[in-house]
Design brief:
The chain is built from 16 helices and 27 strands. It is α/β, with parallel strands linked by helices. Among the domains are: about 150 residues, 3-Layer(aba) Sandwich (Rossmann fold), CATH 3.40.50; about 90 residues, Luciferase, domain 3 (Roll); about 100 residues, GMP Synthetase, Chain A, domain 3, CATH 3.30.300.30. A five-stranded mixed β-sheet has the order 13-14-15-16-17, with helices on both faces. A four-stranded mixed β-sheet has the order 2-1-12-11. A hairpin with a 4-residue loop joins strand 1 and strand 2.
Length: about 500
């Protein structure tokens, strides 16, 4: 096969090990580290131990541990198609995913956080005749402990892939508003997703970025290719605990912290517990992405940490890191926009919807029947996100086409109302949804988590919204109190589940 003009993911690993052989590129919260050379060698041993070929489809469901990153690179070394799966997904979702990709190999932990993953794998992948490989991830490890993955002789491996355009990466959308869709990416497109991180965020060899979000999210390969290209160290945390993760991350000396509202709350709480002295003295920026970050949270981060740099990015699994901010951007754009387009990306607005072209665009859905609706007649990807572009190219996200409440024929952006309500002194977290209404079509409902368990009323919310200048037709007409607003591991509110639960409460007469 003729070599493509673009590098593969494996090419990046080889180049990094040749140019900076002793640079630590990966670490974990147990003290284990891998240099670029160590990553290259470990990935080849694991690829040999897995006994996979380029014809395999490898589904894997590992948490954010060193083994997961090495497995990702090992499968890329062979050129097999790989299908990373979010660890919290269970039988219904995983069965749908592996049946869609028709996996031939399934890599799973034996147990993780008390859940029997082997039984899950046997139920969903075993029925397909897939070979199941178990990684015994038994919790805490010693700094010098070997990787808990199969190992073999790299001499048995075939030559690495030379084509960066094959669709070797099979991801699934988060499914917060609809059933997850299978998304095909290439080595070229996942590498291009890191351009914004290197060109605009400016990640370099001085950076230390601890992550506790799922490395199986497409952001995992984005960040790995970014540090392979530009330097920097990813520190993998196997779980996220709002009460302890902020303190544990301080121990690794982070220069960057991300990435969504639950994580930012953990950092804020940790700093307040710590006192006046900086908990993260080397920190140079927060990275915001995965879900829109409300301006109120951005302002709180700036106030508490005494820094101006909260760098926001915007993208989708189909088109990761389409836009992002830069540290040199003006303060007002850092607070209110998602930055400017990444290298090679074009953005336009059609009927309020943001549409995209660029090198990180996916190769199409696994179900090719979905492609026609995903692109317009000129080949632009239809994001489903509402937004604007100003004269300087800064993109502002104003909502989702599918997250618009239509009340008396007028469109209400749930995101806009959520941003306003987060400024209410008694509201800690909020989701705004539309509920069926026989008179107006839909009514606006605020689902709130309140500070100290205090109750807020429709009247107090109305007073706050009008004082903040919100149009009267957008003001919530119902308020529901919950202990927590359910989000996925990237911080996105699971609106479909929330709406179903609240509709059930309303039907039962709950207030």
């Amino acid at each position: 096969m003729m070599r493509s003009t673009e590098p593969t993911v494996w090419d990046l690993v080889v180049a990094a090990s040749a140019e900076h052989p002793d640079r630590v590129v990966l670490a974990d919260n147990h003290g284990r580290t891998l240099t670029t050379t160590g990553l290259r060698d470990a990935a080849e041993r694991v690829a040999a131990g897995l006994k996979i070929t380029a014809d395999d489809v490898v589904s894997w469901q590992l948490p954010t541990v060193l083994e997961a990153a090495v497995l990702l690179v090992a499968v890329a070394r062979v050129g097999a198609r790989q299908n990373p799966i979010i660890p919290i997904l269970r039988e219904r979702e995983v069965a749908h995913i592996v049946d869609t990709v028709r996996c031939t190999v399934f890599v799973t932990p034996r147990t993780w956080r008390g859940f029997d993953h082997v039984s899950l794998a046997e139920a969903v992948a075993g029925s397909l005749g897939s070979r199941i490989i178990v990684a015994d991830l038994h919790g805490a490890v010693e700094p010098d402990e070997a990787l808990r993955l199969p190992s073999g002789d790299p001499a048995t491996l075939p030559p690495p892939p030379v084509d960066a355009t094959g669709d070797r990466w099979l991801y699934f959308s988060s499914g917060t508003t609809a059933a997850p869709k299978g998304i095909r990416h290439t080595d070229a497109s996942v590498i291009a997703s890191s351009y914004g991180m290197t060109d605009q965020f400016g990640i370099d060899e001085t950076d230390v970025y601890p992550i506790a979000w799922p490395i199986t999210h497409i952001g995992g390969v984005t960040m790995l290719t970014a540090v392979l290209r530009n330097g920097g160290r990813l520190v993998l945390f196997d779980s996220f605990d709002p009460g302890t993760t902020g303190d544990r991350m301080a121990e690794v000396g982070p220069t960057l912290l991300g990435t969504g509202v639950p994580f930012f709350r953990a950092y804020l709480d940790a700093q307040r517990r710590h006192g006046a002295a900086p908990l993260y003295p080397a920190l140079r920026a927060f990275l915001a992405g995965g879900a829109p970050t409300p301006p109120a949270i951005v302002r709180e981060l700036v106030d508490v940490f005494g820094m101006r740099v909260v760098l926001t990015s915007w993208g989708l699994t189909e088109f990761p890191i389409a836009t992002c901010a830069a540290p040199s951007d003006p303060s007002d754009t850092l607070e209110t926009t998602a930055g400017r387009p990444a290298r090679g990306v074009s953005v336009r607005v059609v009927d309020g919807e943001l549409r995209l072209k660029g090198p990180q665009c996916f190769a199409g859905y696994i179900d090719a029947g979905l492609d026609a609706d995903a692109f317009d007649e000129d080949g632009w990807f239809r994001t489903g996100d509402l937004g604007t572009i100003d004269a300087d190219g800064y993109v502002t996200i104003t909502g989702r086409l599918k997250d618009v409440i239509i009340r008396n024929g007028e469109n209400v952006s749930a995101l806009e109302v959520e941003d306003v309500l987060l400024g209410h002194p008694d509201i800690d977290d909020v989701a705004v949804i539309g509920l069926p209404d026989p008179r107006t079509g839909e009514r606006v409902c605020a689902v709130v988590v309140t500070a100290g368990g205090r109750a807020v009323t429709v009247a107090s919310i109305r007073e706050h919204c009008l004082a903040m200048g919100l149009a009267v037709h957008k003001v919530p007409e119902r308020v529901e109190h919950v202990e927590a607003v359910v989000r996925n591991q990237m911080g996105k509110i699971v609106k479909s589940d929330l709406r179903e639960a609240i509709i059930g409460r309303v039907a039962d007469g709950a207030q």
